[in-house]
Amino acid sequence: MRVTVSRKAHFNAAHRLYRKDWSDEQNQRVFGKCNNPNFHGHNYELIVSVTGAINPETGYVMDIKDLADIIYEEVETQFDHKNLNLDVPEFKDLNPTAENIVVVIWNKIRKRIDETDDLEVVLYETPRNFVTYKGL
Ligand code: NI
Q: Which of 42, 72, 75, 106 is the most core-located residue (most Cβ within 10 A)?
């Protein structure tokens, strides 16, 4: 019997989508207004889900307070009110698309979660645009 526990979180951050090795024209063609040189912001919403067996002693899959602390330390303190391109080392040479952001977040949280549990991260860049990564 495996149960999924989920925690929501959010952060505000700025980014610009572009490749240094592409011309201005190519960046504009592929990334459009997301290539604005002066950056733009999003209110990112996050759903982190951990699936595992219920510990018979505690009745928990994991203490959701611990999950909240992990998200706070690994994501919120490092991404909130930051410029992802300039302030977050992971995106120094990695385009901060929603897809790349969700993989970076998953990798940071994965190392803090019991290895017998599964991890899924859903990242909303806008209320209608979201991406999912399960580590597969
Ligand atoms: Ni954007």
A: 75
